[in-house]
Design goal:
Layout (H helix, E strand, L loop, with lengths): L1 E3 L4 E2 L16 E2 L2 E2 L37 E5 L21 E7 L8 E7 L10 H12 L5 E4 L6 E2 L4 E2 L1 E3 L8 E7 L2 E15 L5 E4 L19 E2 L13 E15 L5 E14 L1 E2 L6
């Protein structure tokens, strides 16, 4: 049984985290405690905990590439009984306090977590943030489902354009999924926190919600939540249209099941649309 403590701190300098003398070499789901281990791939590449075999320079193979890398070691000496690192556990039997160091902080700096395990077979050598990323991959998040402006719509210079998007789990959220690797289960929930609209005429509009659907009764008033007024026609642009881009920022909150360990990820998704802006023709 594991007891996780929340991330304690991220040091500004990369630390030497090789195990102390006398630490046991214990197999942990294919990773020994003295190896650099990764639990899953990034960007849907999958994979499970595996031992990093040494290359010609005797560095663990798992440290290659840009995947988050973690080490796990048993603290030596162990903290005294009743200390904060034991949480609600106590020394005895196979119980021991472990430290996991993952190079996932800014610029690859270490993020350190302590936890209690009742035997080496249960020690998670994976980075929960990586497991959270695999949960996100299951969600199949996409860019905004643009409802307005529409390619077939008729829009006029000087008349407010209302922007809004259709809402679904994959295009706006909330969207929830879980993933498990190396004995760590993470549940992640994603929701769009903002949409940045590049209107194609050099203007950028940031909207903190899905926008307000337009109704004919609103007349020519501006959108109360997300809108733009074009000052020039799109006649001089390719296809006589403006290339509009809507970029969603997804905020993903994740938590390790059975512990207080938690974090946040950010995902970016984008959609594009062509919008024609004309002039009101007055017949004399």
């Amino acid at each position: 049984m594991l007891s996780h403590k929340a991330v304690a701190f991220a040091l500004p300098l990369v630390l030497a985290v090789s195990p102390m003398a006398g630490d046991p070499e214990v197999d942990v789901g294919g990773c020994d405690l003295e190896s650099f281990c990764v639990g899953v791939g990034v960007g849907g590449s999958g994979g499970g905990s595996g031992s990093g075999s040494a290359g010609s320079d005797d560095k663990p193979a798992a440290s290659q590439g840009d995947k988050p890398v973690c080490t796990v070691r048993k603290l030596d000496p162990q903290p005294p009984a009743g200390g904060a690192l034991w949480g609600n556990q106590s020394p005895g039997g196979d119980n021991a306090v472990y430290e996991r160091v993952c190079l996932t902080g800014p610029g690859g700096t270490p993020v350190i977590t302590t936890f209690v395990a009742d035997g080496a077979a249960g020690v998670p050598a994976v980075d929960p943030a990586v497991v959270a990323q695999q949960a996100v991959d299951k969600m199949r998040l996409s860019g905004p489902d643009i409802a307005s402006p529409r390619p077939a719509g008729k829009y006029i210079v000087g008349v407010p354009v209302w922007m809004w998007v259709q809402q679904s789990p994959s295009t706006f959220g909330p969207n929830t999924a879980s993933a498990t690797a190396g004995g760590v289960t993470v549940t992640a929930t994603a929701k769009v926190s903002k949409i940045v609209w590049k209107m194609g005429d050099g203007s950028t509009v940031t909207c903190n919600g899905p926008g307000t659907p337009y109704k004919a009764t609103y007349g020519k008033q501006e959108s109360p939540t997300c809108g733009h007024t074009y000052a020039r026609t799109s006649a001089s642009h390719s296809g006589n249209t403006y290339a509009l881009t809507a970029t969603s920022t997804w905020t993903v909150d994740w938590q390790v099941t059975g512990s207080g360990e938690a974090g946040q990820l950010t995902e970016i998704r984008q959609s594009q649309e062509q919008v024609a802006i004309g002039e009101l023709q007055v017949v004399g």
